[in-house]
Write a structure and sequence with these properties.
Elements: H1 2-29, H2 37-49, H3 53-76, H4 81-94
Length: 99
């Protein structure tokens, strides 16, 4: 039982160090124009989420926020799938084409 706790602690430590390092690299690269830092931050959070519940919850929250923001932007600029289908139907009817 004692060796299991040691193995579990060592595993958490290794995952924490690797994931934390990847997140820190992403934070450093985020403002730089050469490499995109945000995907690297998300990869680091994914590594941390393997072992830490807080990282899994944070990653889930970030995914939901990105999805909501992208959907809002698509609706704002008229790029949603429903708008594209409606625009296609309007174009076809104007041109005299049937669906």
């Amino acid at each position: 039982m004692k060796s299991y706790l040691t193995w579990k602690t060592a595993k958490r430590l290794v995952i924490g160090v690797i994931g934390g390092t990847v997140v820190l690299i992403g934070i450093v690269l985020a403002p730089m124009p050469v490499l995109p830092g945000w995907p690297i931050i998300f990869i680091g959070l994914g590594i941390l989420a393997v072992e830490f519940v807080w990282a899994a919850l944070l990653l889930k929250w970030v995914k939901n926020r990105v999805k909501q923001t992208s959907e809002g932007l698509m609706q704002t600029f008229g790029l949603s799938e429903t708008n594209n289908a409606a625009n296609k139907n309007q174009t076809n009817h104007r041109d005299g084409k049937a669906d």
